[in-house]
């Protein structure tokens, strides 16, 4: 017994035990953060069954809309409420049926082993069949732009037109490398552990700052965190899904980007020319040049969160795209 006590006395002062205590405290905090987020923002729309699980949606507008259906695909660290509250309800007010999906692993959707744009597009295509949503206009924001392009490439019968907003669609520069500690944190075992211990408390601490960074140079929209249901992204599963999505994106874009010249549908690329996160000269401008017939809408002085800071302008541009989509279809 004395020997055991002596060993414990030594361990109390070691960095290992301190680290274990920190991880344990983080795990408890993560459980509380996840529970509070889920209780505050329960599912607010119908689920759609797909192979292996289900996707969560938010829907607005008439179910049978003469103007057509617009599907919204959100970006990283977000869920269906982000594009729905930014631009989706404005489109519904213009007579469109609007369906916003929680991408797999985000919001209330099951992960479904879908981490790439192509895999997530495949699940959304399944859901569109289940919803009997004929060819639709697909609006993808940021990371969602890559998924929207994959949907048009792999399931062209589901898509009548594309609206790509501040899209991440082209391979990143080879000079863009992550610091060693980010590369370590992104390794699957480490990412899994951090997402269930230190990740949620740290993400909660930086939440408002991250929102300000996303909106820059504009200020964040009023009550953005609540309206966009952002705390849902603090839950361990969503944090891990976000890391997997981001780390797998460069290789996925290397595979799908050579096919953009094959697209034959109306396409609109919208970007703020002051976007510090997805620069227009690196993504939107060359993307619009590669998609045959695509139109680039440059919004002077605007940042990354176009659906929120220029929702009316974006809704108007999508409404103008609808007749062209119908004629093409």
UniProtKB/TrEMBL annotation:
Residues annotated as transmembrane: none
Span of domain AB hydrolase-1: 69-308
GO molecular function: hydrolase activity
The keyword Hydrolase is assigned to this record: yes
Pfam families hit by this protein: Abhydrolase_1
Gene3D superfamilies in the record: alpha/beta hydrolase (3.40.50.1820)
Domain of life assignment: Bacteria
Keywords: Hydrolase
PANTHER family referenced in this protein's UniProt entry, alphabetically: HYDROLASE ALPHA/BETA FOLD FAMILY, PIMELOYL-[ACYL-CARRIER PROTEIN] METHYL ESTER ESTERASE
Protein name: 2-hydroxy-6-oxononadienedioate/2-hydroxy-6-oxononatrienedioate hydrolase
Source organism of the structure: Methylobacterium hispanicum
